[in-house]
User: What shape does this take?
Amino acid sequence: MDVMVPWDLLVSGPADAQQTVLLLPGGLIPARSYAEVMAEPALAGTRLVAATLPGHCGTAPPEDFTIGTLVRHTARLAEEQACDVAVGFSMGATVALEMVATGAFTGPTVLLGSSMSPADEPAFFRAVCRLGDVLGPLPAAALLKLMGPASKGMRVPPERRAELLRDLRSNDPHTVRRILRGYLDHLVGHQQAAARLCAAGVPVWVAHAEKGDGALTADERRTLEACPHATVVTIPGTSYFLPNEEPRRVAELVVDALAAAGPQPR
Assistant: This one.
């Protein structure tokens, strides 16, 4: 029997808007991490639905933490909310990519800071994910503590940075261990993600900062640049949190995706 998960949602924009966008945050961060993007004037007439991934930030967990399970629940949410466009950041981008690759979502999609294979993630992060098998929640707890020093250069006001850190640290290390393992297992098992994404035939924007938020391998970049319905975007500078640090640029990509979707009858 399929389990129904209660979603933690943040909704903005007109209820009768012609188009709706689903915003999926990264791992261990909540729906309100999209606050800067949702405040962008270019999206004022669009209904925006940000959704914390199940089990993240203390929300109700799904039956397991595989990306496939998250895809199933998220695709149902996208259908229930009548979403025309999907946007995902980091782990949320992995969920959005897999929705597109499996045909669970067929609207234009924006992937921010996405990793398509283990090589796209830093070796330190991969080690933390694997060490959980031996050391239990200790590596996850250490990772959460390290987020404070790592976020010092974040280009947001100090009070906003403090809020984002509180959200990250609201995660239980035991749950984080399961989340990270499910994520890494997916990357290991789906290393032709760029080719699968292109084969889906969906308009997609794949955006990374020049430094900070991960990258694409040379093969992944070549595959996407040769794909007729994929747009590869490199945002100048360093950013670890694109939705918070580059909200205007993210909003521009969302506007492009909305144009590709076209107004939908309601």
Summary: The chain has a mean pLDDT of 92. DSSP finds eleven helices and seven strands in the chain. The domain at 9-116+191-261 is CATH 3.40.50.1820 (Rossmann fold).
